[in-house]
Amino acid sequence: xxxxxxxxxxxxxxxxxxxxxxxxxxxxxxxxxxxxxxxxxxxxxxxxxxxxxxxxxxxxxxxxxxxxxxxxxxxxxxxxxxxxxxxxxxxxxxxxxxxxxxxxxxxxxxxxxxxxxxxxxxxxxxxxxxxxxxxxxxxxxxxxxxxxxxxxxxxxxxxxxxxxxxxxxxxxxxxxxxxxxxxxxxxxxxxxxx
Length: 194
Hints:
Elements: E1 17-20, H1 29-42, E2 49-52, H2 58-62, E3 67-69, H3 78-83, E4 87-90, H4 99-106, E5 111-114, H5 118-123, E6 130-133, H6 138-150, H7 153-167, H8 172-193
Parallel strand pairs: 1-2, 1-4, 2-3, 4-5, 5-6
Helix pairs in contact: 1-6, 4-7
């Protein structure tokens, strides 16, 4: 619910990609930077890349044309940052879930997400809600960035709307219900085995 209001905002006049996460190898920031550079060289009007986070790869981002590094952003400020983006990118090499993917989907952003993200498996249907990217592949990420930026505003909005609806299945209330049901099931199993 914190991110859903972003869905109602008008599309940004100047579309941009957005990455939110730690600036580390595990998050694929090096892959993102290399892919973004290739993407910029391959299109006539490249989108900027807005980044939010902190970590050792910050200097790599700073030395890349078109990157707008916002540094660490407080969680309550993320919806405002997402309003400025036309698509979300998470190229992680390792990502058991990736809550930020769910937040981006709830905000109505189409998502480019690596195959290493658990959330991507559930929230990104390739070509429908966004694009799945082969983990660690610079060329595949650059190509999906080209594909995303070539879509019309209407096509991106449709992708974002679809992702938003899918994100509703993972609410805090539903997670709590699943947890409580699991505890009850475990308790029944333990009591019947004694």
